[in-house]
Amino acid sequence: MEYFHVNFGNDHKKEDGGSNLKPMDSEQLREYGHKMVDFIADYYKNIESFPVLSQVQPGYLRGLLPESAPTRPETLQDVLQDVQTKIFPGVTHWQSPDYFAYFPSNSSVAGFLGEMLSAGINMVGFSWITSPAATELEMIVLDWLAKALKLPDNFLSTGEGGGVIQGTASEAVLVVLLAARDKILRAVGKELIGKLVVYASDQTHSALQKACQIAGIHPENCRFLKTDSSTEYALSPNSLREALSQDLATGLIPFFLCATVGTTSSTAVDPLLALGHIAKSNGMWLHVDAAYAGSACVCPEFRHYLDGVEEADSFNMNAHKWFLTNFDCSALWVKDRSALIQALSTNPEYLKNKASQANLVVDYKDWQIPLGRRFRSLKLWMVLRLYGLENLQAYVKNHIELAKRFEEFVSEDSRFEVVAHRKFSLVCFCLLPPQNDEDLANKLNRDLLDAVNSSGKIFISHTVLSGKYVLRFAVGAPLTEERHVIAAWKVLQDEAAALLRNSSKMTDSFA
């Protein structure tokens, strides 16, 4: 299948099989770069016509590509032709306006330009001396974003805390967990690591569980406390107090609490203020994971979901989810940078320099897991500058209005049910079975998900809430408009009608 036609004109005739291609030459970069930008622009121009979810089977690509790398160079035209015919069929198009699965992963012209510039400079900014602008711009741009979110001043780089761009929220929760672990072990003794306990709701992202595994926290000391519809799947302060009381009575050491603003399954919001008071009174580190919903909190009408963040020790949001900043760009702020540095710092002789030795600068290598890091702040800086906060707020609010419209569609159709209260741009819903049978309902919704996604017209995902198989419709792709939401609802209605007819026939045959 040819996704779109790329016209290279006569330029490719000048290529000698790529044999004159140098590793870096400004004029070749100009020529090839223009072709690549045209290729990507055509991709976005035609993206709406592609199957959103890749329809290939596992292992499809091995039979289409050679078993070994080429000995001689090939032309750019040949490579891009293979991208069209062989790679694109195996791509799930996250930027498609018909993409409604998981959570969004935004791209934008500004984000793309920042990514280009970062790739062009291609520096490795692990310490200030390696590229002073990379460190200082990151500090400044994260202060800008912190102020847009109205985070407390002690999260700013002008105090004892500051921000750092991690690759993902998974990395963010790992580094603060390590900082919290080492901080408590310095107080109680490292031999007591087996008594350390972590707390979160059962709706918390699985990244916390992985972080605990890496950090050496015993699995039996990870408390993922049960939530239900009575609290809209938010962590109950009473449940936390009860768990803490039981653990303290047995000599365990509570040290880390992860609260979430916008859980993955249903965008539940944990009560930050109440949880923060409990954490502080028990000497625990409170981390707030707002990877998805943090972007919405730049809007004044949604900022209240962060009330209580002043009690937190760390806060994280993914600008690459819903803030028009190309992946990867996960913003993490801490109140006490020294806790991160003590847990993660190394200082080999070959990295020593006068500025670092004199403690005059920030070295971000000591705030993250890897040594190397990209110039990621460029794209966030360009997004903030080229769009401005007003446009970014309008962008987020438009998606929320579209989700509200979809929620209204579901509510008005008696065959469907809205399962969880919508707060942002995610709607959790399910198709109701002809009879009140939970097993049948779950099967019906699994079948609906498969039917919708295999059509290639839209892509949605699922979760399980209180034992119920639930469909998730997340609005947030950069190109999504009202017409795409309307069309998606029509696809869901048509597939649901077909399933209900078949289900009714099967029921009649067993009667």
Keywords:
single chain; 14 helices; alpha/beta; 11 strands; four-stranded antiparallel sheet
Describe this structure in words.
The protein is an alpha/beta fold. The chain has two domains: 112-384, Aspartate Aminotransferase, domain 2, CATH 3.40.640.10; 393-510, Aspartate Aminotransferase, domain 1, CATH 3.90.1150. The chain has helices at 26-46, 76-87, 109-121, 132-148, 169-188, 207-215, 237-249, 272-281, 319-322, 337-344, 354-357, 377-412, 438-454, 482-510; strands at residues 162-166, 196-201, 222-225, 253-260, 285-289, 314-318, 330-334, 416-418, 426-431, 461-465, 468-474. Helix 4 packs parallel to helix 12 (377-412). It is globular and about 70 Å long.
Brief rundown of the structure:
With 511 residues, the protein is an alpha/beta fold. The chain has helices at 26-46, 76-87, 109-121, 132-148, 169-188, 207-215, 237-249, 272-281, 319-322, 337-344, 354-357, 377-412, 438-454, 482-510; strands at 162-166, 196-201, 222-225, 253-260, 285-289, 314-318, 330-334, 416-418, 426-431, 461-465, 468-474.
